[in-house]
Design a protein that fits this description.
Belongs to the chitin synthase family. Class IV subfamily. By secondary structure, this protein is an alpha/beta fold. It contains 49 helices and 19 strands. The longest helix is centred in the N-terminal third of the chain and has 38 residues, at 26-63. The radius of gyration is 39 Å and the shape is globular.
Amino acid sequence: MNDGENYWNAFRSHKRSASEGPTLSPWMITALQGTKLLLFAICNVILTLGSVFSKLIVLIMATNILPRTHLIGKFSRKCSRAIVRRTSTTTAGIYLSLLLIQCFPDTINLVRSALEMYKGQCGRLIRSVVVLEALRAVGLAVLSFHVFPQLDLGRCLVLSACFPLVAVLQRSLVAMVSAARAGRSFKNRLGRCFLAVPHVIMFLILMSSCYVWTLFDGKFTATISLPIGIVCTSIGFWESWIDTTHAGTTYDELYRLKYAVRKMNNTTNFAVSFMRIACTVSVMVAAVFMNGHTKLNASHFVKAFFSFSTKQNYTLLLLLACGIITLHSVMRVISRFLAALDLHPFSFVHPLSIAPLLAYGYVRYACQSPTCWIARRLAKFGLRWVCDQWFQNHQGSTHPDYYICFIWLAVGCYRGWRLVRQRYFDTTEEIISSMPPVCNGLCIEQSLVIFQHSLNRQEKTMVIEDEDVIDENDELRIRNDEVDRVSTVYGCATMWHETEIEMRQVMRSILKLDVDHATRMNNKKVNELRYRLEIHIFFDDAWEDIVEDGMEKRQPNEYFNMFFDLLNDMTGEKLNEEGKMETRILVNTPYGGRLVVKLPSGTLLFVHLKDKKMIRHKKRWSQVMYMYYLLGHRIMDCPLSIEDRQQMADNTFILAIDGDSKFEPDALLRLLHLMNAKSDIGCACGRIHPIGNGIMVWYQKFEYAIAHWFQKAAEHVFGCVLCAPGCFSLFRASALMDDNIMHKYTKTASEPRHYVQYDQGEDRWLSTLLLKQGYRIEYAAASDAETYAPEGFEEFFNQRRRWTPSSIANTVDLLMDYKRASENNDAISYAYIAYQFLVIFFSMLGPAIIFTMLVFAQVAAFGLNGNDVMWYNIIPIGLFILLCFTTESNIQLIYAKYMSIAYAFVMLAVLVATSSQIVLETVVAPTSLFIVTMVGIFFFAACLHPKEFTNIIHGIVFFLMIPSTYVFLTLYSLINLNVITWGTREAVAKATGQKTKKAPMEQAIDAVVALLKKGFRLISCREKKEHEEKRVKKMQKMEFALRNIENGVDVKKILDEDEPKEQRTEETQTSTDLPVAEGEKQKKALQKANRYVWMTSHNLKVCERGKLKAAEKTFWNELIETYLKPIKTTPAEMKEVADGLASLRNQIAFTILLVNALLALAIILIQRHKNVLSIKYVPHKGFKWTKMNEMTGQFETTDEPLKIDPLGMGIVIFLLIILFVQTIGMLLHRLNTMIGAFQEVKNLYEYGVTTVLNTKNDDDRIMSNARMMINATGVSSGHAADGYTRHRADESDTGNVLYKLQKARLAKRMQRSALSNTN
């Protein structure tokens, strides 16, 4: 310790203003491979044909800017019947369509960048990108608005192949400069000159496109615009002439942007978008005058844009432009999708290399073999198919420019192939894939290129071309990036009173992880994900008092003994010659005890036995224990620099699991991959599968399924996951160590709402702290884990009684602090906050919605009077509310169970009524459409999750239990909000020092039972026998006490052992046999002696004994004293807490009950006055539906409009919106999961565990490591602190968590020093 300060307690909170092969089955691997191949083929076809279609549409519009009233040629003569009607508004529509195709993506980027800059997220302006993109916009606009209108389709296509002009020039200059470099031999220079000749020739050929048509035909007037357009576009196509050789040169920023080494900041993005729009609009306005459109004025453009009519060709042109924009977006998404799958389009069929050739071939075919359907389709848009209009009187078989145009096309395709050709990298290299940051609508193929760059490869640059390159295969070379990949994972499980089956399940998972960890650490492959592993199990309330030979001893309870025997059985550990197990060490600790075990493959397992008399028990305090121990003591107390400790924190992860969790090593690896891929993730959680038997488990299987399929997936896609389950989540150490997380998590409840938010759902509260501090929580659907779910009705209701109020409290806390959460966390937007508000709002209205559904369904199914049915449902639900306020929880649960069974039969009536409504009102009726849509979406979701498809079957149980869970469970959770324990109200009353008040019925039953028992004992003379047995037992106790009085045993305690509790308490208070000081001294001596007694028990005596090192012992004592000392409260304090919770319960429960009652009443009253207050709705013209004639009782077909309840319809619409949002989130998340599955299949390899016999040296090494963790003299050697690298250039990085803590600690020290100097 330095200056009396504790480094482990540096955390703060302040007020706000390959292991086993993938777990995929063979059929799934085959299906994924087939799907991957099919997607690859489909995506390639869409990219290629989409580019051809887009290019043709853009050129057709461009060639129709100038009026072509008299077209000549074979195509025009044959298809002359396709009459094209053109007006000035149509011409304006063509201009606007081309402008929209080019500038719409830029407008979106402009708005997005402006919003981000408004939030303060700016950056340095990269001027070179702004200039180059402005040149590209000018070039494309000049060609499209002025040059192409004077050409035909074929010549436009070959001209667009000449865009790589500057790229060819650059390649020629590089070759010639290389040949002229000093120091080369004549032969070398001559050879390099010959290599430069083809590039020079290609440059001259492409350069001829700037002037060749001015030599052939006098009709072509764009003699100046043509070279300007070609040169500007070629220079602006900077991705074609910037490559890895420009790294470190003047063009280094362009190199970094091209290969995504850095992203384009908002300032540059805003400037680029603005300049591109300004340049395009300016060129278009100038082209209107240069093209001679003197009759065009602003009114034509306004009319074309704002006058919408599908009968007008200018409106159809704008719709066509919108379709092209959508196609461009889809194609860019597909390109990114293929890049994510590492499936790049074949180079020779990439749009950049093949699209001009395919389009040119199709144009030639259509002109030579006229197909008039093209002309007819284009005529509807006011467009013509423009074939060759030059050299019609030429006598030769080919046109004078035919060969040069064909050469242009060939050179352009070759240069396109050179740009997109696939680069091959070693599997060990870390590859970055990127796309052009700007979308060019007028030449979309330029925006579909995927560039790849290796971060590991040393590329030659123009600056150091001939310098020596470091040998990548040099074994002596230090590879810092490899060391960084070795993460440390602490698996932390919390146990209490788990069964043997649950313990076996979690131990089986731990042993699999042990094998996987050892295999990966022994694997020397660079690309293999490796991690250090250490397991910690925290046993809550693991001790009990037993009396042996008159001595009271503190021993581990039966649950730990069962775990120890199970551990020995599963690891197969044998005794050595001395009858000991060398891999088992027992240690006394300030919180109880510890068992250290070396697992078969070398992983260390620490079992912490918590004594609730010495340290706080329950799960949250166990989490505080391992957070401060592993992150505070292990990291903060290390004698390393801030930089190295930050490296430790960044590479350290805590895997939180429960005492019954079951998972495969692959599940952990997927979470690790996710955490390593994104540094802003504070936690990653997996897909939790409930297991067990019974109807309640079936219900939970479907409930968990739809919650993960829809809710968690939508939270992941649109924002952040709100809850990381404690049964299987991976936390980043540096995130937990940040301000307002670890330290605030130690806060004890001081207000009534704190008891609900902090202790009823500790996992949810920890997640809320992470989110508000700015860390993302993400969901990995492929990381599967299983946990036992409540199997009984009472256990399930009590679990949800804890979860529901905690979930609501934490969500409300996040919503109330939405400004700070949105400011700190980039993933939490205002739209996401609004979505969460809708979700929690409608969840609170669940009882009213389900109640009204039940009433109307029973009326429709049984044909009863609506008032009667309403009262039939109000009475049982009202009675349950009354029971919740007045009776004990066991009576509430019994009533809820029987009512759940009764309402399950009612739900059959709901099913019948719903089916009848669908048949009578048809599917297009709003309510019917909502139900059918919801069922269809659920089935579709099940199809997207083939491994979990069978969960859809459990939806039947979920449907039958809707009244139970959405009405009775909701009411039970809210009205029992003041119950803050796992138990019932009896536990609260006992804690407050009050006697439990029983209901009158319970009192009557107890009185009758007591009377019967007394009568039975009098008849059987049992009372006399019990009195005699009690007297004999007391005499034996006295004899035993007299024999042990010399040993200092508390005789009074032995004699009073079987006395009634009240009598013992009274006698203890009046006893003054021994002085207080002497009693305390004896007590401490006995406690010290008993500290080692537990190690001698029959099953633990085979273990070796260890001693806790002084530094760690000091740490535990200070931690317990600071945060974990057992909480002692008086009955008065507990009564105050109970009263506060009851008051909070009353406020919340009465508010929600009132809102639900008002909503239910409003819906019923509106239905009662449906003829007046309803909305008349006709789904379509000629709609008919079936209605019962109230006079005849017969069903008749009618064309009357449907009468829709406006309030109910509003609720249905909002629920449908939420469902659709969640469905979109599910689709996007499934796409992300599928990409991960494809990558997993790609990296699939045969794997076998290497069996290496443990030698005596290995055992000694493991034992020394185990002892080092317990009794080491050096902190660093005991913490496995090897392998850290320094990759941070500046220690004073303000984003560094450890730097912030150090800065705060130094500021506190300086303040204290200043105060002392003043004094």
